[in-house]
Structures are given as structure tokens and as C-alpha cells.
Amino acid sequence: MHKVMGIDISKKSVHCCVLPQNDPDPKKWTVIEIDLSAPDWHEQLATLAGDCLVCLEPTGWHYARPIVKVLEDTRAILYQVTNKRTGDVRRAHVSDAKTDAMDARALAIIARMTSEGQAVRGVYSYNPYREQRTMELRLLVNENVRLTKQAVRSKNQLHAYLHSMWPILSVRFEIWQRAASAGAYTPQQIIDLAEKVETGWRPDSDAYNHGMARNALYALADYCHPLPVDDTTVEKTIQIYQRLVEMETGLAANELEIEHMIKSDPFAEVTRRLLTLPGASAYRIATMHVAARAMIDEFSVDEFKSAVGSRPK
């Protein structure tokens, strides 16, 4: 039998189970743990993996990348196995107990079956380009999540400051934002801005080129009372608003990057089909590609559900 190996990758170590072994009981197969803090860990792994057919599970890109690099340098043949398939094989042939060593044994069984030419669902040839592109898309999705949370936090802070100035500013937040883009933050400044706009003055931006925007400004000014606002409140409001503008600009650029990426290889064809679904958006499609590691079209219904968290309709 061709030498095969199952590898379970974790943050601090990798567990390797190499076949063939003499004992027929998979529970008793030897599993070698390689400590990734050891200075020669890569040499230990290369010695085990040379010319092997290797099966591993998808794991965090930053965890898997150095392991995969060493394996590629040894000319190992790499296959990726879904977590569900590993669990099924482990429970059927090894143990109900989920440990790194037991998973390595299950992956070794899958590697042996693959080496013998058996078609095993949930086993795919490892594609470095696909993994790299998925990682890049994952980073964009993570950035989108971070910017969205920061923007929400800044809006909540602005609502508090605006309410302290005059409650209507918080209630009519979108109208206030347009006024802020023209440099008006306080009730008095908004009243002054409305008077200037009514005389025909326009800011450098196109904020008040449309009549509906001007009417909304006039209505907001009518609700405002020119009470004085302390300097600290004004300064903090301006700082948070400017920070929010930067975040929203970053979000817009991020969303364009995501849309461009999901419409390019290796995501393009699946994206084209997903965009025909009601409610599909670039961000939602991107999260599906990331969860399924750019293999949506190769997944069964159960594998899709396991990766994405819902069944395809």
C-alpha cells in the first residue's frame, strides 16, 4: 500500500498518523505529535510526509499555511477533507471521542481509502490557488464586519451627543448628517445653514442641489432652538462624525472590493448563479464562499448546511 498520512492541525501542534501500521485496530494506531514550537518541527514533519498521500481538514488559514508549505516541499499529495466526513469516519471506525489523535487516525483511514481509488464524499484535491483566494476574501469579509461594528458604535455615540444638544437632531439623524457634511453640527449652525441655502447658497458638495434635501433641512431648522452648546460637546461631535465618514468611506471601498472578487475566479460561476436568488448581496455571497472554502458547487446538501448553516433552497 502507498504510504499515507492523516494530519490534524491545531494551534500548538500537529498530530500525524502514518499508514500502514501492523495493528488492525485503528484505536491503537501510533499517532505522532509534533510540537510547533520546536525548532525542527518542519524537519520532523517533512521526514514523516515525504512522498505521502496526506489528508487534512480545512482549518484556519494562518494555522494551515506553514504546514501545507512544508508538505508541498516534500512533494506530498494533498487532499482536503470536510469536518463532517472526518467525524463520520471517526465515529464509524475509530471512536466516538473527538480528540486530535482520534481525528488523525480517521484522516489516515480516509487517506488510505483515497489512495486505493475509493470515491469518498467530502474529499477534495487540495488547491493552493483556491485556498489563497478564499483567504483574501475572508480578510475582506472580516474587514467589513470590523468597519460595520465601528460605524454602529460611532452612530450610537453621535445619537447621544445630538440628543444632548436638541432631541430632534438624533431623531432626524440622516438629515443632520447631510447638514454636518456642509459644516453644520449644532442647532444654531443648522438654522444658519438653512437661511443661507434658502438665499441660494450651496456648499461645495451636492448635498442641497435637490429640492427634497433643502425642504428636509428647512423642516429640521424649524424644529431647532438656538440654545448654546458647550465647546467640548461640539468638538466631540465633530470628531466622531469625521471618524464615521472615514468608516463609511472605507466600507464603500471594501464592498466594491468584495463584489469585484466574488465575480472573479474561482468564485465567478457560483456567484453568477447565486445572484439570481432574491435578496442575494455581494456580502452574503462572499460569506458563503468563505464558509464553504470556495467549493459550494462541489458540496452535497448536507455539506452545504454544515459549512454555511442553512440548507440550499
Unreliably modeled segments: none
How far is the first residue's CA from the last residue's CA? Answer: 42 Å
Largest sheet: 6 strands, mixed
Mean pLDDT metric: 92
- Helix and strand succession? EEEHEHEHHEHHHHHHHHH
Strand content: 5-15%
3D architecture notes:
With 313 residues, the protein is α/β, with parallel strands linked by helices. Helix content is 59%, strand content 9%. The chain has 13 helices and 6 strands. The chain has helices at 41-49, 61-73, 83-94, 100-115, 128-165, 167-171, 173-181, 187-198, 211-223, 231-262, 268-274, 282-291, 301-308, and strands spanning 4-9, 13-19, 32-35, 53-56, 77-81, 123-125. The chain has a 6-stranded mixed β-sheet with strand order 3-2-1-4-5-6.
